[in-house]
Amino acid sequence: MKFIHAGDIHLGNPFLGLRNLPNWVQNIVQDAGNTAFRRLIADAIAEQVDFVLLPGDLFNSNEVDAQIELTVLKAFDELRAASITVFLSFGNHDYLASKRVDFPWPSNVHLFDESVTTMQLTTKAGESVAISGFSYGQQHIETAMIDQFPVKQTGSKYHLGMYHGELGRAGSGNYAPFALTAMNEKHYDYWALGHIHLRQTLQTEPFIGYSGNLQGLNKNESGDKGYYLVTDQNGQLIPTFVAVAPIIWAEEELEIPMNLATNELVAYIRKSIQGDSENFSLINLRIISDDARVLSLIANGQLQAQLAQSSQTRDPWYIWQISLKELQKTVQLPHLPVDAWDNNVTEIFTLDNMQAAGLKQVHDPELLDEFLNDEKLTEIMDMVKVKLQLLGKDVSLDEN
Prior knowledge:
alpha/beta; disordered C terminus; 6-stranded mixed β-sheet
């Protein structure tokens, strides 16, 4: 028996936090989720798997773009032509709606509803498989859905569980909290988990774990992303990770020599960036420097602009964010040590203070979303700290 376990594909994800990208980078980013999904489908056919398990959040939202739905239908129909079955449950992002059930899914696609259901399958080799799972009927489930799962059926060689949720006690979380002991009491041969985007193994035998998502959705989801190809090895179902994400979120650190002209600085950075040998990298560049001019170029955004202007369509990476790895702590600002300034900045830049300072007058929802999030506040605080640092140096901040 051979199958694929792929959770949290999130087709239609908007990749929040990326701004002012060149068109060629924007095109790569916009198609990243679809590219990863197409790679999974191609691999499933090439590997001649028996079935594919998708434990929740195939779509990024409960409201799905028609083009995305057509992409999924075409992909699943390709699997049907290859005699590959799809077992699909819906999670907290794409929770079950009537139109999901009524949608013209190909005959090889089997949907789980809001109650735990067990489906049967016979593999190409004639092995009997039972698969139990459920879908979210709303965004949050506080009950322990694991309690509704049946114990392994004696008539099946394998019994697999699909579960979109998180570790925890019933009533202590919003995403179908479960305990490993409860899963083990079911005596299943494999638990295909979804919801957590970080690939992680909770238990090796029998396997209980998250495949992670197919494509990292933001800077916090770095490294290779993909799915598990699961095979029977001496009676035990063993997952092997297969990377398919076309974009890798990465962070690189670079120490900058003193006294470089702007064009030399840009050339030095471009020459030093490593990126990923196989995939396109979106890089958060952490610069280490005590050069006042470099600090100024970072603070007023000129370095970011110069690097964007120098980017080329053949580049296998793009620097989407620049920040300081270390700030100079020896400079004494007037009347207060630097750490006191840092503390004050942290206290000042809160959501409440930002709204009181004027954001409450802004009615554009997209603009509000841009500013009223933790990432934007952190970005603003970093810029303020850099400029505070420059007060102790003889540097003019050119904002033009």
